[in-house]
Design goal:
By secondary structure, the protein is α+β, with helices and mostly antiparallel strands. It has helices at 5-15, 42-48, 51-63, 69-85, 124-128, 188-207, 231-235, 238-243, 268-283, 309-329, 373-397, 401-406, 423-434, 440-451, 488-514, 519-533, 546-555, 563-567, 573-582, 587-640, 648-679, 684-710, 723-727; strands spanning 90-95, 103-108, 110-112, 118-120, 129-130, 150-154, 161-165, 168-179, 216-230, 288-293, 299-304, 307-308, 332-335, 349-357, 469-471, 476-478. Helix 9 packs across helix 10 (309-329) and helix 20 runs parallel beside helix 22. The radius of gyration is 28 Å and the shape is globular. It binds adenosine-5'-diphosphate and magnesium ion (MG).
C-alpha cells in the first residue's frame, strides 16, 4: 500500500525541527586529509606494489599496454592488502551495462582450500576477468541464449575504489563488459575505443604545433542537475517511485516565475545532504567543487573539477549511485529524471568537453600568446566541422524517453543540434572565410587577424544559454545530455567524430604541403574551406524560438523531436560509417545498441502507461466519484427545498467533473487499444512508434483532464501529493 497523502504530509512535518542529523566528524576536517582515501590511487599503488609491478601498471595506463598474468597476480595481492587495511571483506567487478546504471557482483575474499582450511584470497585472474551471468542484461539479441555468458574485464586506466555501504566495504574494480565473442555490451568499451582513436588522430595534428606532444586525451567536466523531494511524499506518489516522474499533477500557482530559486540560499536539510554527499564523493576521489540551487524549486546542481574522460565518466556514474544512497540517509529522494515535473525546468547534465596534451596544454584554449592561436583555431574549427557532419549521430546518443520531455520544452535546448561560438569568434571566422583561398596576402591578413584574437577565457562567451552545444571560452559545453544519462554515450560520439575530422584535416593539409605550400598557409586554407562548409551548423540566436525551427529546416538541419525518430540514424549509412571508421562500435554492436535503446524506450512507456492506469482506477477516480456524489446530493437537497438558484455553482462544477471523467474514460480506452497494438507490433521500431505517437498522446490528454479535476475536487479527498507540497516543502 502506498502512503496516503495526508500521512505522508504528516510524516514530513514531523521531520522538521530539529532535524536529527549526525553529520559525523569528517565534515569539519580539511578535505585534503581524506580526499581519495578510498581509492587505490597512485600513492596507494606505490605503497602496496613492488616497484616493477607499479611501473608496469603505470605504463599500461599511459600507453595501453597489456598486463601479463604474473603482473596481475602481483597487483591483485597488493590491492587485497590495501583493501584489507581498509576492512574490505569482498571484491566486485563494477561495470556499466546498457541499462545506463552501474552493476556489481560481490564475491568474498574468503575461500576454502582443498583440505578445508579457510583462507583469504584474491588472485590475478579474479582481478582481470569475471563471468557474471550475462543473460539478464540488455544485449539487443547479440547473445543467443546458449551463449548467454558475459565477461567483465579489468580496466586498469580507472582506479579501483572501496564502496562503503553501512558497515560493509567492498573493493570495486572498474571493468568493461563483453560477450563471449568479445563484443561490447556496455558504455565503457566503446568509450575507451573512442579515446584511443581520438588520441591517435590528435597527436599528429598537435605535433604540427609542438613536437613534444606524444599523448592527448579528452577531458570532461559534467554538471549534474537533480531534484530532491521528501521521502514520505515520494512514497505517496506511485508515479514518482515507478517512473521517476510525475505522470499527473497540476502546476502550482507559484512555480519558478519569481526567479528566486536560482543561486538562492540553500535550505538547511538540503545543505546537510549536499555536505554529506560531498564528503562521500571526496573520499572516493570525485573532485566535486560547485553546488548551488538551480532554476526550478527543489532543483539543485553539483559540478566537479574536470578530469580525463573515462575517469570523469566513472565518477559521474558513481556519483549518481551515491546521490541515491545518501538521499535515503537524509529521508530524501533524489530525482535524476530529465523531467520530473511538468511546467517547470527539467534536469540536464552539461558535458564540458575539451582536449588536453601530455605537455599540459588545453588545445581549445586560445591562450594569451598570439602564436598559439593557429593551433587553437585548428581544433576549434575542426570541432565545428565534426558536429556539422555528425550532428544526427550526436542527437541519437542523447535520445531516450526521459530526454524527450526536456528537449524542446521551453527551458531546454531544442532537439536541433547547432553550435554557438559567440560574437567574437563568429566575426573572426567570417573574416577568415571571406578571404580568397590562395592569395598569400590574404593568408597573411588572416594570420594577423588570428594573432589579435581576444582573450576568450576572460570574455564571457557563454551568454547564450539556449544552445545545445556552446563554446565557453576554452571548452565546448554539450547541454543536451539528459540528467540520468551515462555520459559515455555522447562522449564516445564526441571523441569519435573529432578523431574522424582530425584525420581528414591532416590528410587535406598534407596534400597542400606536399605541393609546396607552407604549413601555416596550408592549415589556413583548409580551415577556410571547413568554415565555409560547416557554416550551417553555427547559430547565435534564440534556440527556443519558432523562427529557429523554420530557419534550421531551411539550413538542412534535422529536428528529431522524439527518441524513435532520433535513433533511426543508427540504421543509416551516416552512423554506420561513423561507428565502423572510428572503430567505436562494430556493425553487430551498433545493431544491438539500436535494439537495446528502442527496447528501453518501449519498456519505459509501457511502465508509465500501466502506472497511470493504476493510479486512475485506484486513486483518482474513487476520489472524484466520492466528491461527485457529494455534489449531486447537495444539488438535489437544495432543489428539494426549491433553492435551485443556490445550486448553480455546484451544477457547473458537476458538469466540469463529468466532462473530465468522460475524457479520462475515452482516453483510457484509446490508450488500451494503442497499448495492445504496440504489444502486437511486428518489430521493435513499429512498437516504439506506436508508444510514441499513439499511447503517449492519450496519456497527455488524460493528464489534462485529471489536472483540471485537481482544481475542482475537495482538497480533503485528493489522493495525490500536490505540486506545491512536493516542491516547496524542503
Ligand atoms: P559554467 O559557467 O558553465 O558553470 P565553469 O567554468 O564553472 O562553467 O565550468 C563548468 C565545468 O566545466 C566544470 O565541471 C569544469 O571543471 C569544466 N571544465 C573547465 N575546463 C574544462 C576543460 N578544459 N575540459 C573539460 N571540462 C572543463
Ligand atoms: Mg555550464
Amino acid at each position: 500500500m502506498s502512503l496516503s497523502r495526508f500521512n505522508a504530509l504528516q510524516t514530513m512535518e514531523n521531520r522538521i525541527e530539529p532535524f536529527p542529523l549526525d553529520m559525523g566528524e569528517g565534515v569539519v576536517e580539511n578535505i585534503a586529509s581524506y580526499f581519495g582515501e578510498n581509492v587505490f590511487h597512485d600513492e596507494a599503488m606505490r605503497n602496496h606494489l613492488p616497484e616493477n609491478a607499479y611501473l608496469t601498471v603505470k605504463a599500461a595506463v599511459q600507453n595501453g599496454q597489456k598486463l601479463s598474468r604474473e603482473i596481475a597476480d602481483v597487483v591483485a595481492l597488493g590491492m587485497k592488502k590495501w583493501a584489507e587495511s581498509h576492512n574490505c571483506t569482498h571484491f566486485a567487478h563494477w561495470f556499466q551495462p546498457l541499462t545506463g546504471k552501474t552493476a556489481e557482483k560481490h564475491d568474498s575474499f574468503f575461500t576454502l582450500t582443498h583440505d578445508g582450511r579457510v583462507i583469504e584470497e584474491f588472485t590475478g585472474s579474479a582481478l582481470v576477468q569475471q563471468e557474471p551471468d550475462g543473460s539478464s542484461f540488455p544485449s539487443g539479441g547479440m547473445r543467443s541464449t546458449f551463449e548467454a555468458r558475459g565477461y567483465t574485464v579489468w580496466d586498469p586506466t580507472s582506479p579501483a575504489f572501496i564502496m562503503a555501504v553501512g558497515e560493509g566495504k567492498t573493493l570495486c574494480i572498474p571493468t568493461i563488459f563483453v560477450t563471449y565473442g568479445g563484443e561490447a555490451q556496455d558504455y565503457k568499451l566503446p568509450l575507451l575505443r573512442s579515446q584511443a582513436y581520438l588520441d591517435k588522430a590528435t597527436v599528429p595534428v598537435a605535433q604540427m604545433f609542438d613536437k613534444e606532444v606524444t599523448k592527448t586525451s579528452a577531458t570532461l567536466g559534467w554538471e549534474q542537475e537533480y531534484f530532491l523531494v521528501d521521502e514520505a511524499l515520494y512514497n505517496a506518489r506511485p508515479d514518482l517511485s515507478m517512473t521517476g516522474r510525475t505522470l499527473l499533477g497540476r502546476p502550482a500557482a507559484k512555480h519558478q516565475q519569481l526567479e528566486d530559486h536560482y543561486f538562492g540560499s540553500i535550505p538547511e536539510r538540503v545543505y546537510a545532504y549536499m555536505r554529506d554527499l560531498e564528503t562521500e564523493c571526496h573520499k572516493l576521489g570525485i573532485p566535486v567543487r560547485t553546488r548551488h540551487n538551480e532554476v526550478a524549486p527543489s532543483q539543485y546542481e553539483l559540478a566537479p573539477i574536470f578530469e580525463e574522460i573515462n575517469v570523469a565518466v566513472d565518477h559521474n556514474q558513481l556519483l549518481m549511485d551515491l546521490m541515491e544512497r545518501v538521499a535515503r540517509r537524509h529521508k530524501l529522494r533524489v530525482l535524476l529524471h530529465e523531467k520530473p515535473f511538468a511546467g517547470i525546468n527539467g534536469s540536464g547534465k552539461h558535458n564540458n568537453w575539451s582536449l588536453g596534451t601530455n605537455t599540459g596544454v588545453n588545445l581549445l584554449s586560445p591562450g594569451k600568446n598570439p602564436g598559439t592561436n593557429l593551433r587553437f583555431l585548428t581544433f576549434f574549427v575542426n570541432t565545428i566541422a565534426a558536429v556539422h557532419k555528425y550532428a544526427d549521430v550526436l542527437r541519437a546518443s542523447i535520445a531516450h524517453a526521459g530526454n524527450d520531455h526536456r528537449l524542446g520544452a521551453n527551458e531546454a535546448p531544442p532537439a536541433i543540434i547547432s553550435v554557438f561560438i559567440g560574437e567574437a569568434m563568429s566575426k573572426l571566422l567570417d573574416q577568415i572565410a571571406k578571404g580568397k583561398n590562395t592569395d598569400a596576402k590574404e593568408v597573411k591578413r588572416a594570420l594577423d587577424l588570428i594573432s589579435k584574437l581576444p582573450n576568450l577565457e576572460m570574455d564571457n562567451t557563454d551568454r547564450n544559454r539556449t544552445s545545445p552545444f556552446a563554446f565557453t571560452g576554452n571548452k565546448f559545453e554539450i547541454r543536451a545530455v539528459g540528467s540520468s544519462q551515462n555520459c559515455a554515450g555522447p562522449m564516445a560520439v564526441m571523441n569519435g567524430m573529432m578523431g574522424l575530422q582530425l584525420e581528414e584535416f591532416k590528410t587535406d593539409v598534407d596534400k597542400l604541403i606536399n605541393k609546396g605550400t607552407g604549413q601555416d598557409e596550408a592549415i589556413l586554407t583548409v580551415l577556410k574551406g571547413y568554415i565555409r562548409k560547416s557554416k550551417a551548423i553555427c547559430f547565435e540566436g534564440n534556440n527556443y524560438s519558432d523562427e529557429w525551427k523554420a530557419e534550421a529546416a531551411e539550413r538542412g538541419l534535422n529536428n528529431f523531436a522524439t527518441t524513435p525518430e532520433a535513433l533511426d540514424v543508427l540504421g543509416k549509412k551516416l552512423a554506420q560509417d561513423f561507428y565502423s571508421k572510428s572503430g567505436v562500435m562494430s556493425k553487430i554492436e551498433l545493431e544491438a545498441f539500436h535494439a537495446v535503446q528502442l527496447h528501453s524506450y518501449c519498456t519505459k512507456l509501457d511502465i508509465e502507461a500501466k502506472t497511470l492506469e493504476e493510479i486512475l482506477i485506484t486513486q483518482v477516480l474513487p476520489a472524484v466519484m466520492r466528491y461527485q456524489t457529494e455534489l449531486a446530493q447537495n444539488i438535489s437537497a437544495l432543489r428539494s427545498i426549491d433553492m435551485v438558484q443556490s445550486s448553480r455553482l455546484q451544477v457547473d462544477l458537476l458538469k466540469r467533473i463529468i466532462v473530465n471523467v468522460e475524457a479520462i474514460q475515452s482516453g483510457l480506452k484509446k490508450m488500451h487499444e494503442a497499448h495492445d497494438r504496440a504489444h502486437h507490433a511486428n518489430d521493435i521500431r513499429t512498437e516504439a512508434g506506436i508508444f510514441c505517437h499513439e499511447v503517449k498522446p492519450q496519456m497527455d490528454l488524460i493528464r489534462d483532464a485529471v489536472d483540471d479535476l485537481e482544481s475542482i475536487v475537495d482538497d480533503q479527498y485528493w489522493p495525490l501529493v500536490k505540486y506545491r507540497e512536493l516542491l516547496f516543502s524542503l
